[in-house]
Amino acid sequence: EPEVTQTPSHQVTQMGQEVILRCVPISNHLYFYWYRQILGQKVEFLVSFYNNEISEKSEIFDDQFSVERPDGSNFTLKIRSTKLEDSAMYFCASSEPDSLGDTQYFGPGTRLTVL
Amino acid sequence: DAKTTQPPSMDCAEGRAANLPCNHSTISGNEYVYWYRQIHSQGPQYIIHGLKNNETNEMASLIITEDRKSSTLILPHATLRDTAVYYCITLYTGRRALTFGSGTRLQVQP
Fold first, then answer.
1. Cα separation values, B24 from A26, B27, B67, B72, Å
2. pLDDT by residue (tens digit) across A35-75?
3. Which of A76, B29, B68, B89 has the most other CB atoms within 10 Å of its CB?
4. CB contacts, 8 Å: B93 with chain A
5. By CA distance, what is A94's nearest residue in B?
6. Which residues of B touch A90 (CB under 8 A)?
């Protein structure tokens, strides 16, 4: 069964450094998403991406964040200058909306630790 | 998207049906009801969704009341691997951002 994959599984970085989290969505999906979950807290929507542009973003997704689909398979989340509070699990998801709704399939996540 | 209310926790005996309720009394006509679950710190896993009619798939059944103000997720024969946090989420047609609440922590007991 097709699945969303994410790399790395765990990323440790120093405060102020740039990080890029990578995702390979399900191949025939058209919408891509990033969510995050701070330890012990709710899963939070960050951004959705369609047709090579952001279609929706939350207040969390400020200028420090950017997304890109550099080729036909990868979808990346870049954090320009990491802060301690960016430490969280980051989940990528993808979907192929149809007349029955929009089911999003999530990857296993990348645990980002900012020191 | 409509606010959803779920009990914070439930227990279920292994092999028995688990019935997880969700209240979404302010739901509008073009909002779907989605159920996801999260096992430990893994990525959320889609279970089932519906608009008006009851739905069933290989994982679960979704029962939506006639007035659509509440729904119940049924896991017909719960196993230990079904221990997870279950999220009931409503989503307008055409919207993309899933809003996760605190969910129901289901503990399946041996």
1. 31, 6, 10, 11
2. 999 999 999 999 999 989 999 999 999 999 999 998 878 99
3. B89
4. 101
5. B96
6. none
